[in-house]
Structure formats: C-alpha cells, structure tokens
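Hi there,

I know you've been waiting on this one. I reran it after we fixed the sequence typo, so this is the corrected version. Both the input and the resulting structure follow.
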Amino acid sequence: MRRRILELLADGEMTSGAVSEVIKEEFGISQPAVSQHLKVLRDSGFATVRPEGTRRLYAVDSAP
C-alpha cells in the first residue's frame, strides 16, 4: 500500500484527501489509516509535506 502511495505521489503533489480517496477505493481502508501511512513515509524520508492553507500537499522526496 505504501508503494502505491509513492506511485501516486510520483506524478506530482497531491492532497492527503486525494490520496485517501484513491487508497480507500483500491484497498478499502479508512482516511486515518492512510494518514498514518503518509506519516510513516514522511518520517522515513520518502515523502515530503507542504502546508497550503488548511490543506497538506504530499510529494515524493527527491533528495538523496
């Protein structure tokens, strides 16, 4: 599932809600569960997050 999240983010920034909708449809898990996966990816350096107003935009971290 985390690999799928990274595949989605590889195409460009996405809001956490947009990621959650795709993952919920494909895997049937809740939005809080997707948020936990995003947090793990962010904490491990695979993804970045950028706040924009009340939204959070996630992207693949391209830094080495």
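Quick highlight: The radius of gyration is 11 Å.

Best,
R. S.
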